[in-house]
Design goal:
By secondary structure, the chain is mainly α. The protein folds into 3 domains: about 50 residues; about 40 residues, no CATH class; about 55 residues, Arc Repressor Mutant, subunit A, CATH 1.10.10. The protein is built from 9 helices and no strands. The longest helix has 16 residues. The chain is elongated and about 65 Å long.
Length: about 160
Amino acid sequence: MDHEGKGYRKTLTPSQAKPKIEKYCDYQERSHQQVKRKLRGYGLSSLDTDLLLVEMMQANFLNEERFAMAYARGKFKIKGWGKVKIKQGLKREGVGENLIQQALASLGLNEYLKTLDTLTEKKWPLIKGASHIEKVFKLRRYLVGKGYDFEAIDRAIGKVTKSG
């Protein structure tokens, strides 16, 4: 009987779920929360989910520190996110405060400020505004949305408005 209707999900045994979750973890770094969600989606009990999570950690398929570092590096380098937004994302994934601080520290202040300056310089000429104040407001809102802190934003905006 074919059960491909809406909402149907095949329940897997732990031995069926293990190779699938190994492949899932092998593809890219995952948080414990992501893996737990995936295992629960396979219909596994809480006990089986926890046992498989421990197995994945022991086999080094799952490492929260590696995940936090990869997440922070990826969101910063690829999406140009600031530390505020990265921190929120890591918290949403259930990463502990110590690992979040470690991941943010790994970004490096010089590279962080340089990226913010580059974003600011590229965005400034593209902003349409009736007045200088309106343009500054729009740029600030954009950079806050990217997850940068106010102090760094003010520094970057000060540099771009003085030069042009």
